[in-house]
Design brief:
The complex is a heterodimer of chains A (about 525) and B (about 250).
Chain A (H helix, E strand, L loop, with lengths): L2 H20 L1 H8 L6 H23 L2 E2 L4 E2 L1 H19 L1 H11 L13 H13 L2 H20 L3 H19 L5 H30 L9 H8 L9 H19 L7 H8 L2 H30 L4 H23 L7 H21 L3 H34 L10 H4 L1 H14 L6 H19 L4 H27 L16 H12 L8 H11 L7
Antiparallel strand pairs in A: 1-2
Helix pairs in contact in A: 1-3, 1-7, 3-4, 3-7, 4-7, 4-13, 4-16, 4-22, 7-8, 7-13, 8-9, 8-13, 9-11, 9-12, 10-13, 11-13, 11-14, 12-13, 12-15, 13-14, 13-15, 13-16, 14-15, 14-20, 15-16, 15-20, 16-18, 16-19, 16-21, 16-22, 18-20, 18-21
Chain B lengths: L3 H22 L3 H26 L4 H6 L1 H22 L11 H6 L17 H23 L5 H23 L3 H22 L4 H33 L9 H8 L3
Helix pairs in contact in B: 1-2, 1-6, 1-7, 2-4, 2-8, 4-9, 6-7, 7-8, 8-9
The chains are: A mainly alpha (about 525), B mainly alpha (about 250).
Chain lengths: ~525, ~250
C-alpha cells in the first residue's frame, strides 16, 4: 500500500468525528431530530477505518508522517476510543430527546449586550448549552481523544490531552444546574493546573538529551536506542518523569489528583460519563506510557525508577479508592461510586505496568480495554435507569427495586457490577488475575517489598468487591419505585451486546492477542522484558 | 565569570521571583493583576535576553517573547469580561468600533475589584509559604542538575517556584478571578522553563510555545464562559459558595 493511501487512512480515522463537530449545526438543520444519530454514524465509520488501519499496521509496521505516528500501541488506544464512543453514541439521541423534553418550557436566554466581544462570548455560551452544541462538543471530544493517540510530537500529544479538557468541560456542565456548573469548574481548574506539570516534564525530558533536540517520540526513541548518538542527564530524566506522572496522572485520575473525577463523572450527561471514564482517563494514561518507555530506555536501569513510580501511584490509588467505595453512609449518587471505581482500576492498570514484565504489560493493557468496556456499560445502563426514574419523578437517591420495575436493565446492571469488581467469568477477572500472576511470579523471582504490595492489592480488591455489591444490592433489590411493565427489551439490546463482549473477554484475549503482544513490546526496552 | 547577557538573565529572573512572591501575598486583586503584568513584561525581557545570549539562530526566542506580552495586554480586559456580568456593571460593556476595541473596552472594570484577592492564610502566612516554596525549588533545581550552568539552575528553580506559588494562589484565594491568576502564574512558570531549556530547533520551540499559548487562550475562554454561568446559578463567584456537591455528598451520609 503506498504512502499516500496510508496517510489518507490515518486522516480518515479522526475525520468523521471531527466533521460531526464542525458541521453539527448544518447536520441538525437538515436532518432535524435524526441529526442526533450523526455521532453514531461517524464513530461507526471511524471504527471501521481503524480496523482497516489495524490490518495495515499489523502487516507493514507503524505508519509515520510529519505529524502522526501510529504503531500498535496507538492503534490499541484508537480502537478503544472508537469502541466506547460507538456504544456511547447509541445513547446520544435518547439523552438529547429526554433533555429536550425537560427543557421544553425553558426559554432561551436573551443575549442583550451592545459589546460585540461580550455578545460573542454569550452567543458561544448559548450555543454550547444547545443540542447543536452537544453534538459539536461530542464530535470534537471524540476526535481529540483519537488525536492524542496519533501524535508523534510530544508537544502535540500534550496539546490534545489538554484540548480534551477544554472541549469536555462544557459537556460536563451541559445540564445547566448549579451542581453541573460547579463540577465543570472544578474539572477545568484542576485539570488545567495538573496538565501544566506534564508540559514541564516534557520540556525537561527533551532538554535532558544532548545533541539535536527533537519533540517526536519516534525520533527520540530511535536516538536513545543508539547510545553513541546522544548522552543523557539521568537526574533530569527522573525529574521529568515525575512531573509527567503528576501532570498526565491528573487526567488519568491517579490519587491524589483525582478530586475532579467523582464530580465530573457524576454530573456529566451519561453518554459523556461513559466516555470520560471509559477513555478520557486512558488518554492520560497513554501519554504516561509513551514517557515510561522513553524514561526506561534513557535510564537503562531495567525500569527500576519509572516502574517503581507507577507501582507506587497505582497502589496508592487502589488503596485510597477503598474507603470511598465501601462507606455505607453514602447512600446516593451511584455515578460517584462508579467514578471511584475508576480510581481503583486506574490504580490496577498503573500497578500492572509498574511491574515491568511483559506479561504484566499485556495484562495491564488488556485491563485498559476491560475497564473501558465495563465502565461504559455501567454508566450507560445506569443512565437509562436514572432517566426512567426521572420521568416518573423519582429522585436519584430513592432508586430501588429495579429487578422488579426494570428487569432487563437490572439484570445488565447487576452483571456489569459483578464484572466491574473482578468476579469470574468476566473480563476484568481475567486481566486482574494476569496482573496478580505476574506480580507473584516477580515476587518469587526477586523477593522484596513487592509481597507487601501484593497483599495490599488483594485486600483492597476484596473490600471494594464487598462495597460495590452493597451499593448494587440497594439499587437492585427493595421496593420498586416505578409502575411495572414499562421496560422495552430493544432499548437495552446494544448494552446486551456490550455485556456479551465483556463476558467473551473473560475467556480469551483473542482477537487482540497479537495487538497486545506487539503493544507490550513497545513498552519493553531499557533492559525490561529481557 | 558571567557574561553580560547571563547577568541580565539572572537579574531579570531575580525580579520575576520577587514579583511572584508579592503576587501571592498581596491582599488586593488589582495589585495582583499589576504584578502579573509586570511578571509577563519581565519574562518577555528574559526571552529577548536569552535570544541575545544565544545568537542569531535562536531568533525564535525573540518571537515567542510576544506570548507573555500578549497575555499582559489581554489580562485586564479578560478579567473585566469574566466579572462584568457578576458585578452588573453594563457601563463597562458599551459598543466600540470593532470587536477588538470592544474587548479592550472593558479595562475600566478595575474599579469594581477591590473586594477580591484576599488570601485565606493572610499576607504573612502566605509570604512564609511562598518563600519556603521558593527556597525548596532552588534546592531541587540545584540537586537535580548538578553539572548545569547557573542559568539552567536559576531558570529551573524559578520556574518550579512559580508553579508551586501559582498552586498556592489557587488554593489560598477565596474568589474565582484570583484562582485564575494562580493558573496564569503557573503558565508563566512554564514559559520560563521553556525559554531556559529549549535551545535548538525552530520547530520545537515554536510548536511548544504555540501549544502553550493556544492552551492558555482556550482555557481562559472557557473560564470566561464559566464565571458568569456560575454567577447565574449561584449568585456568587466566591469559591466557598461553590461547594454544594461536597456538602450534598457529606449530608447524604447523615
Amino acid at each position: 500500500m503506498n504512502e499516500i493511501v496510508r496517510n489518507i487512512l490515518l486522516i480518515a480515522i479522526f475525520l468523521p468525528p471531527f466533521l460531526t463537530g464542525f458541521f453539527s449545526r448544518g447536520f441538525k438543520r437538515r436532518l432535524g431530530r435524526h441529526g442526533r444519530n450523526i455521532p453514531l454514524v461517524t464513530s461507526g465509520l471511524s471504527l471501521g477505518v481503524t480496523i482497516i488501519v489495524g490490518q495495515v499496521i499489523l502487516r507493514d509496521g507503524p505508519i509515520r508522517n510529519y505529524i502522526f505516528y501510529v504503531d500498535t500501541l496507538s492503534l490499541y488506544f484508537i480502537l478503544l476510543v472508537n469502541l466506547v464512543a460507538f456504544f456511547s453514541a447509541f445513547y446520544v439521541p435518547r439523552y438529547l430527546g429526554a433533555a429536550a423534553q425537560r427543557d421544553d418550557g425553558e426559554k432561551a436566554s436573551v443575549i442583550n449586550t451592545q459589546n460585540r466581544f461580550h455578545y460573542f462570548v454569550k452567543w458561544l455560551d448559548h450555543f454550547l448549552s444547545s443540542e447543536n452544541g452537544f453534538l459539536f462538543l461530542f464530535g470534537f471530544f471524540h476526535a481529540s481523544m483519537l488525536l492524542v493517540s496519533m501524535m508523534d510530537s510530544l508537544a502535540g500529544l500534550w496539546f490534545f490531552v489538554a484540548a480534551t479538557t477544554v472541549i469536555s468541560t462544557p459537556l460536563v456542565g451541559y445540564e445547566r444546574t448549579r451542581k453541573a456548573q460547579e463540577a465543570a469548574l472544578k474539572y477545568v481548574m484542576i485539570s488545567s493546573a495538573g496538565i501544566l506539570f506534564a508540559l514541564l516534564g516534557t520540556i525537561l525530558l527533551v532538554s535532558a538529551f544532548s545533541g539535536e533536540q527533537s519533540l517526536d517520540w519516534s525520533i527520540i526513541r530511535a536516538d536513545l536506542l543508539t547510545p553513541e548518538k546522544i548522552s543523557v542527564r539521568p537526574s533530569l530524566v527522573k525529574l521529568a518523569f515525575l512531573f509527567v506522572v503528576l501532570g498526565y496522572g491528573t487526567k488519568a485520575g491517579f490519587f491524589p489528583m483525582h478530586t475532579w473525577l467523582p464530580d465530573a463523572h457524576g454530573q456529566a450527561p451519561f453518554p459523556v460519563s461513559a466516555l470520560l471514564s471509559g477513555v478520557l482517563l486512558k488518554s492520560g494514561f497513554y501519554a504516561i506510557l509513551r514517557f515510561y518507555s522513553l524514561t526506561n530506555i534513557a535510564l537503562g536501569d531495567s525500569g527500576e525508577f519509572a516502574s517503581f513510580i507507577l507501582l507506587l501511584f497505582g497502589l496508592i490509588s487502589l488503596v485510597f479508592a477503598v474507603p470511598f467505595i465501601i462507606k455505607r453512609r453514602y447512600t446516593n449518587q451511584f455515578k460517584r461510586i462508579l467514578a471511584y471505581h475508576s480510581l481503583e482500576h486506574m490504580g490496577i492498570i498503573a500497578f500492572g505496568v509498574g511491574l515491568g514484565v511483559e506479561l504484566a504489560f499485556i495484562a495491564a493493557l488488556f485491563h485498559v480495554l476491560n475497564h473501558a468496556l465495563t465502565k461504559a456499560l455501567m454508566f450507560l445502563i445506569y443512565g437509562q435507569i436514572k432517566q426512567a426514574h426521572e420521568k416518573a419523578k423519582v429522585p436519584e437517591g430513592e432508586i430501588r427495586g429495579i429487578f422488579h420495575s426494570l428487569p432487563i436493565s437490572g439484570f445488565i446492571l447487576a452483571l456489569g457490577g459483578i464484572a466491574l469488581v473482578g468476579a469470574p467469568p468476566f473480563n476484568i477477572f481475567l486481566s486482574e488475575f494476569l496482573i496478580l500472576w505476574s506480580a507473584v511470579e516477580k515476587s518469587v523471582a526477586e523477593p522484596n517489598y513487592l509481597i507487601y504490595f501484593i497483599a495490599a492489592f488483594l485486600l483492597s480488591v476484596i473490600l471494594i468487591f464487598a462495597g460495590l455489591v452493597n451499593h448494587l444490592g440497594r439499587i437492585a433489590l427493595g421496593e420498586n419505585q416505578l409502575p411495572l411493565g414499562r421496560e422495552k427489551a430493544p432499548e437495552s439490546f446494544v448494552l446486551l451486546i456490550l455485556l456479551m463482549m465483556i463476558l467473551f473477554f473473560g475467556f480469551t484475549l483473542w482477537p487482540l492477542t497479537t495487538l497486545l503482544e506487539q503493544s507490550a513490546m513497545i513498552l519493553c526496552g531499557g533492559g525490561l522484558c529481557s | 565569570m558571567l557574561s553580560l547577557f547571563e547577568s541580565a538573565f539572572v537579574i531579570l529572573i531575580f525580579f520575576v521571583i520577587i514579583i511572584t512572591n508579592i503576587a501571592a501575598f498581596s491582599a488586593s486583586f488589582n495589585f495582583k493583576l499589576g504584578t502579573y503584568r509586570s511578571q509577563s513584561f519581565l519574562l518577555a525581557g528574559v526571552a529577548v535576553v536569552a535570544y541575545l545570549s544565544r545568537g542569531r539562530d535562536a531568533y525564535i526566542l525573540a518571537v515567542v517573547a510576544a506570548a507573555p506580552l500578549l497575555r499582559a495586554f489581554i489580562i485586564r480586559p479578560f478579567m473585566a469580561l469574566t466579572t462584568a456580568e457578576p458585578l452588573s456593571k453594563p457601563d463597562i460593556l458599551e459598543g466600540r468600533s470593532s470587536i477588538f476595541a470592544d474587548f479592550f473596552a472593558k479595562t475600566e472594570a478595575h474599579d469594581y475589584w477591590p473586594e477580591y484577592g484576599t488570601p485565606r492564610l493572610g499576607s504573612i502566612g502566605t509570604l512564609v509559604i511562598s518563600g519556603l516554596f521558593s527556597i525548596f525549588s532552588y534546592w531541587v533545581a540545584q540537586r537535580t542538575i548538578p553539572n548545569a550552568s547557573l542559568i539552567e539552575i536559576v531558570g529551573l528553580g524559578t520556574s518550579l517556584a512559580m508553579l508551586l506559588i501559582g498552586m498556592v494562589v489557587m488554593m489560598n484565594e477565596k474568589d474565582m478571578p484570583s484562582h485564575i491568576m494562580g493558573l496564569l502564574i503557573m503558565e508563566n512558570g512554564l514559559f520560563l522553563v521553556a525559554v531556559t531549556f529549549l535551545t535548538e530547533g525552530i520547530l520545537i520551540v515554536f510548536s511548544m510555545f504555540v501549544a502553550l499559548l493556544f492552551y492558555v487562550l482556550l482555557t481562559l475562554f472557557i473560564l470566561a464562559i464559566y464565571s458568569p454561568r456560575l454567577h447565574r446559578v449561584s449568585n456568587s463567584i466566591y469559591i466557598d459558595d461553590q461547594k454544594i456537591l461536597h456538602e450534598q455528598w457529606e449530608e447524604s451520609g447523615r
